[in-house]
Amino acid sequence: MIKTWSATTLAGLLLTAPALLHGQQTVTESTADDRSALSITVYQRDLALVREQRQLALDSDGTRVRFTGMPGTLDPASLHVRSEAPLRASGLDWTRGNLDTERLLADHRGRTLSLIHDETGRQISGRLLHHDDRQVLLETDRGAETVPLNDHWRIRFSDLPTHRHPLPALTLDLTPEQAGEQPVDLAYLTGGLSWSARHTATLDEAGEQLRLESLAAIDNNSGTNWVDARLQLLAGDTHGEERPVQPMALRSQLAEAETVEREALAGYHLYTLPDPVTLRDGETRLATLSESRSVPVEQQWVSRGQAQQRLSDPRPQGVSHRLVFDNGARGEGSPMPAGPMQVYGPDAEGELHYLGEQRLDATPAGQTVRLDIGRSFDITAERTPVEWRRLDDRGGFEAEWRIQVDNATDETVAVLLEEQLDGDWEILDESSEHERVSARLARWSLEVPAEDSAELRYRVEVRR
Predict the structure, then answer these.
(1) For 260-300, what is each residue's pLDDT tens digit?
(2) Is the separation of the CB atoms in 46 and 192 below 8 Å?
(3) Which of 99, 104, 226 is nearest to 165 (CA)?
(4) CA 382 to mean position of chain CA atoms
(5) Which stretches are tagged as biased composition: Polar residues (predicted)?
(6) Nearest 5 degrees, angle CA 278-CA 281-CA 283?
């Protein structure tokens, strides 16, 4: 059955005259307990789209409803109000929760205020003339009198202003076509919610397979609790300060599924968690993004240097431990949202140890992943300048380098030597053949025997 939605946007709320004058209305409060459905899409940049449905008893002459249980980070400019039956919404009021001592003192300026001393019971009453963070100035029967604001004095306010609320609250005038209890849907953007991906990769004992797992860490700093929410996570970078477009349809039922569902959405990936989730304020919840899977992995030893640097003496050059794997076949693998990947590996008795980590960019299925997880202890390199000659005033040069690699392990290893070359470059002479990886990178593969060393010598010309 196709539903017809009656929708009111912010412009409608501001331009439509209130159904009733505020002073003649009784305010009905709707708390978070009135929610019959709650759905939240969380983005990776302190932003969430909240869609909630509340059951409200509305009068045909109009009901002024104060919605509480809202986050103080709500963006009122993003509010949409929808219902299945015709409904007019107007008179938008929004407060983030502005009831505190400073504001109450400001509201009481020119009015009577009482201060009571806790130890002596002495009471001073008078008209509030001025206040700051240290004292108040009162006009009493004996003249103007200052009273310090400290732990010994309590302030007694005669009443509370009606426009101040202790909690965030959204107030609307709602006028239905038919009176009675009915569902009303609210949709709005809020800050204070975000999520990030966390990946783990575990080597098998042979070092030939890598088990991949991905989690989502969901942070709630919105100032409110979200109970039994249908949760969706959008992976991707929504650029700029513009807010994402709100979907026109609101879901009134919580989805039921056994596993996390992933779907493509306008160039992003949308993950739907299988079960309702409760997010408490200040908490971080973890959720599985994809099932554990194993992929073949190649272990490499890589040392990268810069040919344009000018040295006079030999210098150590680090050798990194790199893991290389394909993230499944294109269309069959599991995309990995941006986030850190921690790598673990077993010792001789199968106990896992932390080997290092690297932050991944958003990685689609079918893409090759290279993880540089740490520096080798037993495989080292040293870079020695042989000759350096400037070719022109634009920074061109000719250089000859010798790179020696020492292997203290009991196995022969292949070490990849990568040289960064910025400019139009040509290898003039070399002890082994290079690979032109890119316009700025040359690579040599150097086989180093067990408990021995090997070296690469090459001469390069760089023009700029």
Answers:
(1) 665 554 456 788 888 899 999 999 999 888 888 899 999 99
(2) yes
(3) 99
(4) 41
(5) 300-311
(6) 75
Give Cβ neighbours of residue 184 (< 8 Å, ≥ 6 apart). 53, 54, 56, 58, 81, 82, 83, 87, 174
**All CATH 2.30.30.100 domain ranges in the chain, comma separated:** 101-156
Contacts of 241 (CB under 8 A, 6+ apart): none
Q: Give pairs for 432-435: CB < 8 Å, separation 24+.
A: 432/456, 434/458
- Minimal CA–CA distance to 325: which of 336, 339, 314? 336
Threshold 0.85, pTM exceeds: no
**Separation of alpha carbons 337 and 370, rounded Å:** 15
**Do 220 and 282 touch, CB atoms closer than 8 A?**
yes
Q: 379 and 236 in contact (C-beta within 8 Å)?
A: no
Tokens of 105: 């003192």
Rounded Cα distance between 177 and 191, Å, is 34
Phi-psi region of 148 (alpha: psi -120 to 50; beta: other; left: phi over 0): beta
Q: Summarize the confidence of residues 111-123 as an average pLDDT.
A: 84
CATH number of 101-156: 2.30.30.100
15-20-23-24 Cα dihedral, nearest 10 degrees: 180
β-bridge mates for residue 183, sequence order: 55
Tokens of 346: 């077993």
In angstroms, the CA 367 to CA 59 distance is: 59
Closest C-alpha to 419, from 435, 406, 431: 435
- Cα(102)–Cα(83) distance, integer angstroms: 40
Q: Give the residue among 267, 366, 383 at the shortest CA–CA distance from 319.
A: 383
What separation in angstroms does the CA of 221 have from each of 150, 165, 401?
31, 20, 54
Count of Cβ atoms closer than 10 Å to residue 366 Cβ? 14
